Amino acid sequence: MSDPTVEFLDALSHRPPDPLVARVRGTVQLELEDGVETDYWAVVLSNGNVSALPGRRPADCVINVRRSLFDEIATGRLAPFAALLRNQLTVSGDLLLYGYFQRLLPGPPGARDPRELVAERGGRR
């Protein structure tokens, strides 16, 4: 059985430098609660490079969320900002960094990158 959260976090470390976070530096600590256990992941953003490492590390931003809920976020079936507004996850520390972290998350299933649509039209609007 696949684990959407681990797949998403592993993929972060293998992506090319991301222009959406090109000028961002900081560490986001994910605290993923599953019953009595909590898994910890550190997502490090450094000038466009992103890596995800298991374990606890000093962080600028901490996200606490149920593991099953983050599975939904990691697959794009749940918007992270909506989860925050519903108090389904909590964020402490640098909220701006949380905003940048959201840019790394996938969109809804079936959504397409706007840059692809522009390229298909040959650059026309």
Topology overview:
Blueprint: H1 4-12, E1 25-34, E2 37-46, E3 49-54, E4 61-66, H2 67-74, H3 80-85, E5 89-93, H4 95-102, H5 114-120
Question: What does this entry look like structurally?
Answer:
The protein is an alpha+beta fold. It is 30% helix and 30% strand. It has five helices and five strands; from the N terminus they run αββββααβαα. It has a five-stranded mixed sheet. The model has no long low-confidence stretch (mean pLDDT 90).
Entry summary:
The chain is α+β, with helices and mostly antiparallel strands and 125 residues long.
Compressed to H and E, one letter per element, the order equals HEEEEHHEHH
Biggest sheet strand order reads 3-2-1-4-5
Proportion in β-strands: 25-35%
N- to C-terminal distance: 43 Å
Query: Class by helix and strand content?
Result: alpha+beta
Largest sheet: 5 strands, mixed
What is the mean pLDDT?
90
What is the molecular shape?
globular
Notable features of this structure?
about 120 residues, five-stranded mixed beta sheet, about 30% helix
